[in-house]
Each structure stands twice: as C-alpha cells, then as structure tokens.
Specification:
Structural class of chain B: alpha+beta
Oligomer: heterodimer
Number of strands of chain A: 17
Largest interface: A-B, 15 and 12 residues
Largest sheet of chain B: 3 strands, antiparallel
Shape of chain B: globular
Number of strands of chain B: 5
Radius of gyration of chain B: 12 Å
Distance between the termini of chain B: 6 Å
Shape of chain A: globular
Structural class of chain A: alpha+beta
Number of helices of chain A: 9
CATH class of the largest domain in chain A: Alpha Beta
Distance between the termini of chain A: 51 Å
Order of helices and strands of chain A: EEHEEEHEEEHEEEEHEEHEEHHHEH
Number of domains of chain A: 2
Order of helices and strands of chain B: EEEEHHHE
Number of domains of chain B: 1
Strand order of the largest sheet of chain B: 2-3-4
Helix content of chain B: 25-40%
CATH topology of the largest domain in chain A: Rossmann fold
Strand content of chain A: 25-35%
Chain lengths: ~280, ~90
C-alpha cells in the first residue's frame, strides 16, 4: 500500500495500509503516543475498489486479513472512521487470544468495571465520564478477558463519540485531543477522542473485574441486580468470539458471571450515572 | 424406547441460578437449561425407558405425583437439542 502505519493498542498490533495519505496522517496524529508493535497481529487495508475511485469521488473500501463481503465503502472524508472500523473488524472476526466482550472498561485500584449494552446504551459516554473523575480508561469498544487468569486487558483505542456524546465529552475533557468532526456517517455524527495519557501509558496493566454493569441511558434512574444466568446470556450476545473459543470461552464467561456481581443501571444523565456507579462501587 | 445421555466427560455443567449453563464438548454448543432438564441428564446414568427414568427421579426427588407424559415432553426437548439420544 502507498501509505502505512503500525500501532499497538493493548496486546494487539495493527498494520494499516491505505491508498490515500489523509486517513494515515489522521490516524498517526491521534495515535502518536502509542507504541509500534514488534509484529502486527492484523493487517488493515483502506483501498479503492476501482483504480479511478482513488481520485474521482474517492471512496474507501475496508479490507484486511478478515473482511465482510457486503461492507459498504465510505467517502474519503470518513477515512479515519473507515480505519477505526477496519481495526475493530479484524479484532471482532479474527482475535482468539482472549474472550472479546463488546464493552467499555474502567479501572480503579486494580479492579475493573466492565460495562456492556446495546449500541446507544451509553457505555462509551459513561466510560469517558468516569475517566474524567479519576478512573483509568481501559477501553470503550472491547474488553479482553483472559481465560487463564480472569483478568481483563485494556484495549484503549480512540474513543468513538457519537451524536450527543460528543458535546458531553467535550465538556468533560476541555483539554482533550479530538479528531476531526465526521458528520452524517452511517452511525450518525462521530468524533474521536484520544484516551487520557494514563490510559495509554498503563495499557499493558490488566485488572481484575469487580463489577459487571449494564447501563441504559435516557430513562429514570434505577438500579437492579442482574442474576448470573441473565448476565451470562447477555455477555454471550456481547461477545464476538465466544463460539470460536469453545470450552475456554465457556469457562471464562461462567467464571466471570459467578465471581463478579452484576447490576443494571438506568440513568437520565451523566451526573446521575456517575453517582449510581460510585454508590455501587462503595457498596461492593 | 430407551433414552441415553452423553458420557459425563462430554458435558461441562455450571450452576448459574436460576438456570444451568451446559457446554457440550461434542458440538461446541452452549445450552441454558431450566429444571428439570439438568436433573434428567444427571439421572440418565445408563439408557432408560421413561418408566425407569421416572422411577429414578421419583426416588431421588421425592416426586409426589410422577407424570410420565410431562417427562416425555421434557425428553423430547432434550432429544431435539441433541443432548439426549434414543435407542
């Protein structure tokens, strides 16, 4: 590929190649504090499906070691998003070292809160807000659960803020390093935020899960216990490689839900969510 | 007709109250079972007819009113899920 970049996010090394300079320059600027991997686990390619698409109404097709045949190309203006989506795709389809949970994770004193929910539930925004209040941000997309140790590993890629979450994060992180505004993407308005410096500096430190949280944004404040059975089913649905890991995945996930309390919280706004999380944490 | 459960080593069972999570090593499929399915699998230590199985369950769990028709429905479900075979 004409332009390339190698970065390591947590335990995962990526090599990103592109037909265009702009997405690589944007990724390089936002990932400038991340290490270079010894060996890339995954290769990502951003390419023009037809040669003339490199210059005329350039559209970015996502490729790599693992591909979705029907993934729609994105305009070059959304090339940064294409790169992020492509990295996520490689991990979701190809990663086997840990059990992948579609979740955000924050840590304090070596213990982690793993937050999962459907898209739009607010797990990314909540992790960002908690990170602004003294919690270490470990990731807003994937929690990497080690079947051997039960520890969760950090994957602090760029924080992908959507719609109303963009303003909330800008208020919480007035000095934050933000990527370009990406309006009207297939996922709505998107803007990326570089995780706090501590999240990057300490990304090789795993943490022991201490609380499973199922947040839901936009409704009246409420908290309820979630039983092990329900937590198990919800987390199998939140995992992209549970089936692929087989017995190791089963043991990892049953061990997690049996050993870690699970709660569902409904919250109307960020302050209510933080108060609820801190109250739950104090009661553990 | 006799019903047969897999060898114990083929299944990994974990109690996740109120359900039981069961991993079938032969298929790689995870099952979420509600009572009495786990008890039926545990009782099927050898191939049994419905009457033999009902007698074992009635003895183990002090069933006041053993119902062979209800047990047959549960067994059909386990057969459909691949956890119980018939011979």
């Amino acid at each position: 590929m004409r332009h390339a970049l190698s970065i390591r996010i947590g335990p995962v090394g990526f090599r990103i190649g592109s037909d265009w300079r702009a997405p690589i320059d944007q990724l390089a600027a936002l990932y400038r504090d991340y290490p270079v991997p010894d060996v890339a686990d995954f290769t990502v390619r951003l390419f023009a499906a037809r040669a003339w698409r490199r210059v005329i109404r350039p559209s970015v097709t996502i490729g790599g070691d693992y591909m979705l045949p029907d993934a729609a190309p994105l305009p070059l203006a959304h090339g940064l998003l294409a790169g992020e989506m492509a990295m996520n795709l490689q991990l979701a389809l190809g990663y086997r070292r840990h059990l992948l949970l579609h979740a955000s994770v924050v840590e304090r004193d070596g213990r982690a809160i793993v937050m999962t929910g459907e898209s739009g539930a607010g797990k990314s925004t909540l992790a960002t807000l908690l990170a602004s209040r003294g919690w270490r941000f470990m990731g807003d997309e994937f929690a990497l659960l080690d079947p051997e140790t039960g520890l969760v590993h950090a994957f602090p890629r760029l924080i992908s803020l959507k719609n109303a979450g963009i303003a909330a994060a800008a208020a919480a992180w007035p000095d934050g390093r933000f990527g370009p505004s990406l309006p009207d993407t297939p996922k709505g308005d998107i803007r990326h935020l570089v995780p706090p410096a501590a999240a990057i500096a300490r990304m090789d430190e795993p943490a022991m899960p201490a609380l499973l949280l199922f947040p839901r944004h936009g409704v009246a404040a409420d908290t309820r216990d979630v039983g092990a059975s329900e937590a198990f089913v919800r987390l199998t649905q939140a995992s992209t490689n549970y089936v692929a890991l087989g017995e190791a995945g089963f043991r990892a996930l049953t061990g997690l839900v049996r050993g870690v309390p699970a709660r569902a919280i409904d919250y109307p706004d960020g302050d209510a969510a933080i108060a609820a999380v801190e109250a739950l944490w104090a009661g553990l | 007709m006799r019903y047969r459960a897999p060898e114990a080593a083929a299944l990994i069972s974990t109690d996740l109250a109120p359900f039981t999570a069961l991993f079938d090593r032969r298929s790689g499929i995870t099952h979420i079972l509600a009572s009495p399915a786990p008890e039926i699998l545990a009782a099927l230590t050898e191939p049994m007819t419905i009457d033999m199985l009902l007698a074992v369950l009635a003895r183990e769990y002090d069933l006041a009113d053993p119902d062979p028709a209800a047990l047959a429905v549960r067994l059909d479900e386990l057969v459909a899920s691949g956890l119980v075979a018939t011979t």
